[in-house]
Amino acid sequence: AMEYNLTQKVVQYLDPHLVVHMLDALEEGGVFDTQQVQQASLDVLSKTYMVDVMMDTWKKLNPGKPLPAEMTKKKESVLAHRRRLKEACKPLTDLLADQERVNSLRANKKLSMLHLKEMFDIPGPCFEHFYELCKMTYECGQYEQAAGMLPFARALGSLTPENDEGALWGALASNILYMVDEESDPTVHAKQSLAALREHLDSRSSMRPGDVLMQRVWLLHWSLFVYLDPRCEDGPDLLADLFMSESYQQALQSAAPHLIRYLTVAVVVNDRRKRYLMPELQSVLRRLQRYYKDPLTEFVDAVLDKFDFDEAQSKLEEAEAVVKQDYFLSELYDHFMYNARLLVFRTYCQIHQKIDISTLAKRLRMGDVEAEKWVGSLIRSAGIAARIDSVSSTIVMGSQTEPVYQSVIEKTRGLTSRTWSMASAITQSRRKRSHRYPAVRE
């Protein structure tokens, strides 16, 4: 399964802090050699200001040896620089720490650089250094604080367009790396940051097409941390909508076909919309099979395109190992296996009126008794029109129809966003024409 490991491809599109987060999990999972993972973490940590974590990692690799002098110097330099930034921003940070006053300013639409300068006599350099302090806080690994500060940096209206975009990426990374389990949905802030960044990228008509495409590729990779988190209940829905939208589909096919693995899983585990998403997924798989395939994509192809259940059985066995070793999918293993077996069962039932349980058990990689219990439970819970004939050890299929309203809902889903995309494209096209052929004035 190591030949299908995507870690090295994925980390190319991640911030160093997200890479460290991944490597920590890989070290615990035992997929790679521990010492190699620790060395990789040390190399990445050297690009950040998380000096204490870097020192601890160095000690693991070099037990009993004294720390290099440059590490100690770097820590002193980082602490001194942060103290200077905090002092330079103190009037502004003290004001922003007063939640009641901030709420009042926000309600009166006066939470901006111009109003704060006028009302509280806050010096201009405070605003100039505040974004730098936000960035420093993130680089030091204090993600909770950074997640709280960066929205203020944008709201104050003191950032250059480049720094404003940087603040959006920083807020997303901070919210990914700091998720509070006590909340009903720990991913809610990260989802909001993703939506804000996506809206920003979609509205950047002045950016070169190639740059926009690469930014979208990065966003697709970062979204995996949010939408494939088991705590994100609507994650598979949101991932499928993002990956299948026209502009992001182009980015995926052009620069990151390996991401089709995650779209495949998101569709397979999607309980509500699987039937409507599958045809779109099959179309994508056909277009990309020359550029990327793995046991997961080949499993879906074997079941739904080839109806080759022997191959599907073989690919599902390979897919088990791939899912277990994938950083983003390992916690979805049980959910994926259940739905993969369900996909085989439903497809098999569509082309057979009577099914031998022992034959089906082999297709599902189960024992006969286990398969009979699983099918019985599935018939009851999923409302499948079928019955088990215990005498002949077969499953007898009935007919089943889907409510019309559900079909209408799914077919019209995304209509608003597609209409908006078309209108935006037409508007941009008209702008280009007007610049190319200016109106003649009398």
Layout of strands and helices, then pairs:
Elements (H helix, E strand, L loop, with lengths): L6 H4 L5 H14 L4 H12 L5 H11 L7 H20 L1 H7 L2 H9 L5 H8 L3 H16 L3 H13 L5 H17 L10 H15 L6 H19 L7 H10 L1 H10 L4 H9 L5 H15 L6 H12 L2 H17 L7 H18 L3 E3 H7 L4 H15 L3 E4 L4 E4 L6 H9 L2 H22 L6
Question: What do you see in this structure?
Answer:
The chain is mainly α and about 450 residues long. It has 24 helices and three strands. The protein has helices at about 5-10, 15-30, 35-45, 50-60, 70-90, 90-95, 100-105, 115-120, 125-140, 145-155, 160-175, 190-200, 210-225, 235-245, 245-255, 260-270, 275-290, 295-305, 310-325, 335-350, 355-365, 370-380, 405-410, 415-435; strands at about 355, 385-390, 395. The chain has a three-stranded antiparallel beta sheet. The termini are far apart. Mean pLDDT is about 85; it is low at about 435-440.
Task: List its traits.
three-stranded antiparallel sheet; 70% helix; 442 residues; mainly alpha
Beta content comes to under 5%
Shape, principal axes of CA atoms: elongated
The residue-averaged pLDDT reads 87
According to DSSP, the number of beta strands is 3
Q: Sheet bearing the most strands, described? A: 3 strands, antiparallel
Question: Structural class per helix/strand content?
Answer: mainly alpha
Number of helical elements: 24
What is the ordering of alpha helices and beta strands? HHHHHHHHHHHHHHHHHHHHEHHEEHH
Low-pLDDT parts are 435-442
